[in-house]
Amino acid sequence: MGRVGFTTTIPVEVLLAAGQEPVDLNNLFIGANHPQQMADQAEEAGYPRTTCGWIKGLYTAALTTEIDSVIAVMHGDCSNTQALMETLELQGMDMIPFAFPYDRDPQGLRASLYKLMDRFGVSEAEVEREKKRLDEIRRLCWIWDDLTWKSDQVSSFENHLKLVSTSDFEGNPDRFAVEMDKLIMEARQRQPESGKVRLAYIGVPPIFTDLYQVLESMGARVVFNEVQRQFSMPYQTENMVDQYICYTYPYGAFARLADIKAQVEQRQVQGIIHYTQTFCYRQIEDLIFRQKLGLPLLTLEGDKPGKVDARSRLRLEAFINMLG
Amino acid sequence: MIGIDLGSRQVKLIQMQKGTVSRREMRDTIGFYRQYGRMHDGQLQIDLEEAGWSGDEVIATGYGKMAVSITGARQIPEIQAHALGAVFQSQRQSFTLVDIGGQDSKVILVRDGKVADFITNDRCAASSGRYLENMAAVLDISLEELSRYDQDPAEINATCAIFGETELVARIVEGCALPQLAAGVNYALYHRLAPLLKRMDSDLLVLSGGVALNKALADILARETGRQVLRLPDPQYNGAIGCCVFGGI
After folding, report:
1. Which of A41, A230, A238, B108 lies at 20 to 30 Å from A323 by C-alpha?
2. 10 Å Cβ neighbour count for A273?
3. What is the DSSP letter of A308?
4. Domain ranges of chain B
5. What is the pLDDT of residues A230-274, one digit of tens each?
């Protein structure tokens, strides 16, 4: 069995149908013992200091782990991925481009999917069979999410961690499912953590390693992790194309906005943290969310991996204090 | 009631009795920490008694409060402290507070006496008091003199406290006169604030922090925004006053 890395959530069913182990390079990077050193290594290789910390981390993660190839999502994620792909190619890495269609067109998505299936030599029937299997595991993640916002039994960080892991199911969906079953049983026995300020976290997952713990220590709970939840494909769908069309993240701010609006209302969110990465084009999209969401919104910016810095803590504290 | 604002560059201490300030003191932050701070359980602990401030309830706020603890003090977030101080000093309930200190700036929307929204600079000290100090030093004039000029500004874009210097030197070489250069510096600060003020708009702009002493900036703000501008009587002590207000004066 080979291992295939990728730069953001891709139709993982294709890799599983081909008997490949999926490796989300983001999780590998931020879960490493010294993620900051990985970003530094990319800078030593020539990546500009004024570039996204995630991209730098992915570069080093791809080069320092045993993988056969990397799927680079050229459209629907990050505007730096093309250069990431090219610089990895320069190092002799086998690169496979994948693109979500900008206009969310099912035909365009089908074409991308077929190209990927061809590359791994799997049929549509095999891939759809994997989807059915993963549907059951993803359902466990939806329960996990419900236990976060409906009954306040799962913490902000636990919600983030398990949902963000659904991009690669930690490399082994069956093992992941067994663990989720156990965690759900255990969480259902807990006392609810109610009475805290209810926050939504929107944007890419944070590069800060202790953000959720910091928020909880300040008397707040994140009851909605937008993009992480999207990774768990929270939709009942019949087939692969439907599923990856419902998935909002690759299709721009407005596709995401509809999902965010519905969820913050349902989950009785009091305030929103919009996280953006330093040097990321998504900082521009901040103005769209500010204008359209109609709830207090704090824009939080992170650059390098590590603990939440003193100024950000100060701003978070003031924001929670204002909402409380 | 004693209010203490642990700023990034100055520690401000205020004592209030029956709604009036009875004592005030401003100390250099690093010197203050060195002199009165002791490490205790990995945290810097300040002994106020040793610093000559005791015998009253203490409320603290400020940039240093995450890492610094003051024996016997209650701590409040600085956004809240600044809003409370400005409501008390201005005797107004709804306004936009522009607080520009030594290393940071905050724009706080106050409605009915409470914080409704806020923005802070989050990454660097551009367009802070330090910027003005550096620019005044390059021009070889005092901060007081710098704050006299708001007409016919030279074009200065950088508000970075370091790169601003390079730009200013380039303008000097081009032959710009001192009044234009000084006005350009003040305008650069305004341009940095303008988008924040648009997001936090009110009919009244209240200025606090050391930069509120800059009359040129106040005049530029009034002229460019068409809003009423009020400089607080005690701008640098506003956070410390807010602490006292929180404690009940």
Report:
1. A230
2. 23
3. P
4. 2-78+240-247
5. 999 999 999 999 999 999 999 999 999 999 999 999 999 999 999
- The answer for residues whose C-beta is within 8 angstroms of residue A5's C-beta and 6 or more apart is A23, A24, A25, A28, A61, A62, A65, A67, A69, A70, A71
| A207's tokens | 């590069």
Cβ neighbours around B143 below 10 Å, total: 16
Structure tokens at A311: 């100024």
Q: What is the dihedral of CA A278, A282, A283, A286, to 10 degrees?
A: -150
> Which tokens sit at A99?
């693109």
Instruction: Tell which of A311, A313, A320 to mutate to test the B interface (max B CBs under 10 Å).
Output: A311
With CB atoms and an 8 Å threshold, state whether A321 touches B80.
yes
Annotation: CATH topology of A3-124? Rossmann fold (3.40.50)
Dump strand ranges (E) for chain A.
3-6, 21-24, 69-75, 94-99, 197-202, 220-225, 271-277, 297-302
Per residue, the 3-state secondary structure of B221-243, as one string, reads HHHHHCCEEEECCCHHHHHHHHH
Report chain A residues whose CB lies below 8 A from the CB of B80: 318, 321-322
Question: Inter-chain contact A315–B122, Cβ cutoff 8 Å?
Answer: yes
Q: Among positive and negative, which fits the CA dihedral B155, B157, B159, B162?
A: negative
Alpha-carbon distance of B249 to B244, in angstroms, equals 6
Q: Structure tokens of B52?
A: 């000559």
Tokens, residue A291: 């204008």
Could you say which architecture CATH assigns to the domain B2-78+240-247?
2-Layer Sandwich (3.30)
